[in-house]
Design goal:
Elements: H1 3-9, H2 14-30, H3 36-43, H4 47-60, E1 63-64, E2 74-75, E3 88-94, E4 102-111, H5 112-115, E5 122-126, E6 142-146, E7 156-160, E8 166-174, E9 177-181, E10 190-192, E11 196-205
Antiparallel strand pairs: 1-2, 3-4, 5-6, 6-11, 7-8, 7-11, 8-9, 9-10
Length: 209
């Protein structure tokens, strides 16, 4: 069997992924696997159709089933469920400082990838210094940067100066000059005629403790 055939046979369709996810969630709540009839009821299809999906998943190696047993479905350990990504966190409530948590009734999640998504490629830099603390970017933080060479006034950029040094500042084009504005009243802005933008900040990550 060649590699292309193997990849085609193990590909999951959206319906198959929904079936596997339902089986996983059912087992977590109930402690046992659903029957074929319960699968048919959930997806509003016939048992014949359910058997066809289950057999296809067995051929692909994602599901095992013992014959003549109602609750014998067993998931493979090799399934990568999209909602189990490390960056996808359960959103369990809303909290204000000094007040109890307001519970969220519906199941929600917080996808960290959404916070740092950008049209172009991204990279991370560790911040050294406190020139941007008034923008809540502190020494030791990590900035997520979209790699691009242009920026709009007011965006926080990674700028490369003519002397070869790089700096993290707010970008402004001002009367034929470039102004790199710190977010700290103790620092003076940097005024230059030439610079090269390396990227624009799209997120900040801080490790607590």
């Amino acid at each position: 069997m060649d590699r292309r055939t193997s990849k085609r046979e193990t590909h999951l369709t959206p319906k198959q992924l929904r079936i596997l996810t339902f089986i996983r969630d059912f087992q977590r709540v109930k402690g046992y696997a659903p029957t074929m009839q319960e699968l048919a009821d959930e997806f509003q299809v016939s048992k014949v159709t359910v058997f066809e999906h289950v057999e296809a998943l067995q051929r692909k190696g994602y599901l095992a089933r013992l014959p003549h047993k109602a609750r014998s479905l067993k998931l493979s350990q090799s399934i990568d469920f999209p909602d189990e990504r490390p960056t996808l966190l359960p959103l369990v409530g809303v909290i204000a400082a000094g007040r109890p948590i307001e519970a969220i009734e519906d199941r929600e999640s917080l996808d960290l990838e959404d916070f740092f998504s950008a049209p172009g490629p991204t990279f991370a830099l560790r911040v050294r210094g406190d020139s941007m603390i008034e923008d809540q970017i502190c020494d030791g933080d990590y900035v997520i940067v979209e790699k691009r060479q242009t920026a709009r006034n007011g965006e926080t950029v990674v700028a490369l100066l003519e002397d070869g040094s790089a700096t993290l500042k707010r970008f402004y084009k001002d009367k034929g000059m470039f102004r790199l504005q710190p977010a700290n009243a103790s620092f003076r802005p940097i005024m230059v005629k030439n610079l090269a933008i390396q990227g624009v900040v799209v997120g900040v990550v801080r490790r607590v403790g």
